[in-house]
Amino acid sequence: MKLKLELFGAHSEKLPRDEGEIEFPDETVPGKIVDWLELKDGDQFVILINGHPVSLEDRYKVKLTEGDLITVFPPMEGG
Amino acid sequence: MGWQGKILRVNLTEGTITSEALNQQWAADYLGSRGLGTKYLSEETDPKVEPFSPDNKLIFATGPLTGTMAATGGRYTVVTKGPLTGAITCSNSGGYWGAELKMAGWDMLILEGKSPQPVYLSINNDKAELISAAEYWGKSVWEVEPAIKAKLQDPTVKVASIGRGGESLVRFAAIVNDLHRAAGRSGVGAVMGSKNLKAIAVKGTLGVSVKDPARFMAAVGAARAKLDPSARRDSLSTYGTHAMMDNTNAFGSLPTRNCQDVQFEGVKDINAKAVVTPRLSDGSTNLVTNKACFGCTIGCGRMAHMDPNYEKASEDRYKKISGGLEYENAYAFGPMCGISDLNAITYTNFICNEDGIDTISFGATMAAAMELYEIGAITKEDTGGVALNFGNAEALTTMVEQTATGRGFGKEIGEGAKRLCEKYGHPDLAMVAKGQEFPGYDTRAMKGMGLAYATSNRGACHLRASPFVDDFTRVTTEGKAEIVKTSQDKVSVVDSSGLCVFPAAVWGLDDIVAKIDAACEGDWTEERLWQTGERIFNLERSYNLKAGLTGKDDTLPPRMLKEAAKSGAGKGQTTGLEVTLPEYYKLRGWTEEGIPTNETLDRLKL
Ligand code: SF4
To answer: What φ, ψ does residue A54 adopt, rounded to 5°?
Structure first.
């Protein structure tokens, strides 16, 4: 399954430079993608699927579909 | 211990300066900084006082951890009745000035009355004097700070001053310290201007002692062991708060064109990546380095260098490295005004710093002016010929020059969005809560933030509660009241301790209480801190009710309550304040009208 992946913040260099789609196994769940990125404190990162948030409880349950945009960013407070 | 036990009181009308003992009972009940300043203001002034009247007081307050070895322990607050909101305000700043005041031996500085002539206050440990500022009046922060250091023949003196913004009583004028840090919000700089006080120079060499140094250092070390390796610290240190822009844009909570939209097409040109991308002109980047406040192990501050080819950078002072883009100023000058010109945004920020005006309120008021212009409520006749369309970067830079120095149509902008929109017949277009302009979070997707804005005692604020992570993971009204109430109480403690609010995302009150208990007299427990936070928040609330505000002021603009968001995670939704607010009142122990019940006041010893 091909997915679009965007990663913001201090760890964004962990992604391949071109912003194309990345091939993942068909049963991939969002939590697994964050694990694969080996992010420090990754369990606290925010995950959006097509702009909509995934709750902490659901990150290993939600099914993904070909072409989904997965957005991952670090937890941040304040601005 | 922790506290210095002394207050410096300056009567500007009489020109008298006295030292007095800190009220120990109040310190035990209100901790310091924000809490203690609020207690003194409440006891010493009539909440109905006119903010620019000599009867209003201006309080600079440090916390028990200010000036200690605690990481980020360099903060001070300015507490007064705010000219933008008519509510109590407390504006927080970092840099080095607060720690210097503490090390000069003072917990607080209370300024009362109004000087007949412009003056500045010079403090050297236990000595203080008022000196004529005639030669500095009419000068910018960038001119006056080095001039005072030169005059005192001491480059290590720390200076907090106002620029022409504060002198012109811009309702959102800031007090700038150490050139690049500001007590920015709610117009504390205008209150200073109304008192004819140009600057406060401090030299402090007395140090700060703590009750149990060994235990204190152990607590400091334990807290750092949590903070230093955290992802949150990495993010703040590398990209600053500016990193937030990609997040809010992806989520659909980036206020755009006066909140008509929630995502901005120009983000890539002005985000945290853009400022580290080498530019064509000189191969350099907009961001030069990060910068830390006193005792900080994060260093979220940004220092920027404008593109030398940018026409506005032609004057020497704009070629230097100065305070750069963070999330709030970048949001306010960028998406909120529909502008994606990095040079114009950086220049606008330089001007806000140079003459001391709040970046958030300026940008959001500018956005309101732009919408008023686009619907024809303001014309070129009003603006002196400037076309205030969204996206017009030149309009932004022209207006910031005028606003920061109190000239032309800038005078109208300097009144803030609420007064501007009322004057031109469209009060609904002011994106404000209690008269203070929105920071960079649209409340339709971030419903906890909506409740936080509506109930913040100083008007719309993103730093008086901390619903961020929950808001980014759950778009619902459910459970928000609890998160907002709890985080408001926690932030009240953090602000009153002398620490910065940013590391508090990693630290619980258990980490903080270990430091307070080791530094201060008395027995401090986590439970006591929670109650102290709640007490401080309720005291601010009580001040506001006495000032004439009511539960009806706990609201948001109709756009947030009735117009659905056009895109993003909150698409089709409004804020849901009608659900969260009554729940919140109940949790707080307030009546349906938002008034603390007698039981609540008794429980909190108020
Ligand atoms: S985190 Fe940022 S604002 Fe807070 S003390 Fe450190 S440098 Fe200053």
So the answer is: -110, 130
Q: Where in chain B are all domains bearing CATH 1.10.599.10?
A: 443-603
pLDDT at A19: 64
Residues in chain B with CB shorter than 8 Å from the CB of A54 are: 473
Number of other CB atoms surrounding residue B485 within 10 Å: 22
Q: Is ligand 1 within 6 A of the CB of residue B293?
A: yes
B6-203: CATH topology:
Aldehyde Ferredoxin Oxidoreductase;  A, domain 1 (3.60.9)
Element (H, E) at B149: helix B141-151
Q: For the segment B533-552, what is each residue's pLDDT rounded down to a tens digit? A: 999 999 999 999 999 999 99
Domain coordinates in residue numbering, chain A: 2-73
CA distances from B165 to B37, B111, B143, B178 (A): 24, 20, 14, 17
Query: Which residue carries 């009362």 as its tokens?
Result: B112
Using an 8 Å Cβ cutoff, are B386 and B398 in contact? yes
The pLDDT value given to residue B167: 98
Confidence of residue B72 (pLDDT cuts 50, 70, 90): very high
Asked if B250's CB is within 8 angstroms of A40's CB, the reply is no
b/e B293-330 (16+ beta carbons within 10 angstroms → b): bbbbebbbbbebbbbeebebbeeeebeeebbbbbbbbb
pLDDT digits (tens, 9 = 90+) for B185-222: 999 999 999 999 999 999 999 999 999 999 999 999 99
Strands across the sheet with A69-73, in order?
Answer: A21-23, A2-7, A69-73, A46-49, A52-53
Q: Which tokens in the block code for residue B254? A: 């980036």
Ligand 1 centroid – CA B298 distance (Å): 6
Residue B393 has which token pair? 């970067």
- Pick the residue from chain A with its C-alpha nearest to B469: A75
Burial bucket for residue B585 (CB in 10 Å: 0-12, 13-18, 19+): buried
Which phi and psi (to 5°) does residue B79 adopt?
A: -115, 135
CATH of domain B443-603: 1.10.599.10
CA-proximal residue: ligand 1, atom 8 (nearest): B293
pLDDT at residue B426, as a whole number: 98
Triad B530, B534, B540: Cα angle to 5°: 150
> Measured between alpha carbons, how far is B168 from B91 in angstroms, rounded to an integer?
19
Euclidean distance between CA atoms B100 and B74, whole angstroms: 9
CATH superfamily of A2-73: Beta-grasp domain (3.10.20.30)
Residue B296 CA, closest ligand 1 atom number = 6
pLDDT digits (tens, 9 = 90+) for A12-27: 777 766 567 889 999 9
Please indicate if any CB of chain A lies within 8 Å of the CB of B569.
Answer: yes
- pTM of the predicted model as reported, rounded to 2 decimal places: 0.97
| CB-based contact, B277 to chain A, within 8 Å | no
Model ipTM?
Answer: 0.95
Tally Cβ neighbours within 10 Å of residue B548. Answer: 11
In angstroms, the CA B130 to CA B544 distance is: 32
Q: Specify whether the CB–CB gap between B111 and B195 falls below 8 A.
A: yes
Partner residue facing A46 (CB), from B241, B473, B501? B473
